Structures are given as structure tokens and as C-alpha cells.
């Protein structure tokens, strides 16, 4: 059931309007955001682009808005015309991850902090199915919901100056993967040999908001083989 006026409007720029939901992030909210994003892209005029967040849509227009109230009413009309927020057709990707401490250099310290055996931490993390909420922070950085509550933990007090590409981390109630080298405050528990972001490709990031992600534990030897195959272009990421 829809909530009357479930979001607030904020004008951040003469050409930009932010829609901010009054709900906590969830799969249901993601379906709502993705549905409205699609409808706005289809029916709203003079859109240059739409950027999505956990609880928001930032709409960039080609020209400065002449009437904010008129545009807000137009958006609300489009929203109210939506009969149902369905989960979009999405892919389910399986990413290979090596959880060996050589890659997951925070695995043991995080295990001690959470009072969970490393093998149990890996089992919990890799047995969950995650959903891509949105892509941000870095090009190709996937924000994933679905982390078991027992693995929720605060980010590092002191961020790491260099986090390697492919690093899988836990921060707060989320897990994510660093697509390129970057400073980072998440606890690194593993690494995937798959390149997550290719700016030269038609679709630079393999996944989209709404897609699902599973992690498949692999050994160091398997990691090396996949890394080599991926570099040669002979490895295909599994999905259904």
C-alpha cells in the first residue's frame, strides 16, 4: 500500500531536484525507487540523468526549473499512477572470492572482534544472497544489502590508505567490493580476481541496481587460475 507523499523534495541546483524517501533502506524500497526511476525516465521531460541512492533519486534536468512546485506535482502524478512496485527482472551473479588472510587481511581481527571463528564468518558471508542497492563512491563500487546481522560491525577507526582492487569488505550493515585501488575504512575479508569496472566496455560495470550477488569461496590456486583466464579474456562470470 502506498504512503501519501512518501518522499520530500529538495532543490540542490537550478537544474537538479532531489527526491528523498522517508523510509529505511529495504528491498521493498529499492523496488519502489527503481520503478519510479523507470517511470520518470519515460514520462518526465527534459531529463539529463537520474542518480540513485539508498533512499533517494537525484534528477538532473537539461535546463533550470522554472517552477519547482509544478515539477513536484508532475512527479507525484507519475508516482501515484504506478499501480504496483514489482521487483525488476534482474540477474543473479556469482563472484569467486578468496577469503585467505593473504587477501582478507582484516579477516582474523574482525573474527576476534565479532567473537566468531574465521571459518564461520566466511560461511555466513558467502552463504548469503545480496542485492545491489546502487553503485557509487567509486566507479563500479557495489553497495550490497543482505549482510547477516551477526556480521554487522562499525567501520575502521583508522581507514586503510590503500585497498586493492577486488577487495571484499564489511562496513556497518553492508558488504561491498572495491573496483579500483582506493583508501577505505571497511574491514577487508577477501578478494575477487574478477575485474569489476572496465571504462572501455559498453557497460563499464557488469551489474545494475536490483541485481543479486552471491560469493563463491575459492582457494589461492583457483584465484590465480581465474585471474589468468580473466586477463586473457577466457573467463566468463557466472549468472542466471
From the structure above, extract its key features.
single chain, 240 residues, alpha+beta, Gyrase A, domain 2, Cyclophilin, 2 domains, 8-stranded mixed sheet, 30% strand, elongated
Secondary-structure blueprint:
Elements: E1 7-13, E2 16-21, H1 27-43, E3 47-52, E4 56-61, H2 68-80, E5 92-98, H3 107-114, H4 118-127, E6 130-135, E7 142-145, E8 160-163, E9 167-171, E10 174-177, E11 182-184, E12 187-191, E13 212-218, H5 220-232, E14 238-239
Parallel strand pairs: 5-13
Antiparallel strand pairs: 1-2, 2-4, 3-4, 5-14, 6-7, 6-13, 7-10, 8-11, 9-10, 9-12
CATH level 1 class label of the largest domain: Mainly Beta
Number of strands: 14
What would CATH call the architecture of the largest domain? Beta Barrel
Largest sheet: 8 strands, mixed
The poorly predicted ranges are: none
**Assembly type of the shown chains?**
single chain
**Total helical segments:** 5
Number of domains: 2
List the secondary-structure elements in sequence, H or E.
EEHEEHEHHEEEEEEEEHE
Strand-residue proportion: 25-35%
Q: Any idea what the shape is?
A: elongated
Rg calculated over all Cα atoms: 20 Å
The CATH topology annotation of the largest domain reads as Cyclophilin
Average pLDDT level: 91
Q: Helicity level, as a percent range?
A: 25-40%
Strand order of the largest sheet: 12-9-10-7-6-13-5-14
Q: Outline of this structure?
A:
This protein has helices at 27-43, 68-80, 107-114, 118-127, 220-232, and strands spanning 7-13, 16-21, 47-52, 56-61, 92-98, 130-135, 142-145, 160-163, 167-171, 174-177, 182-184, 187-191, 212-218, 238-239.
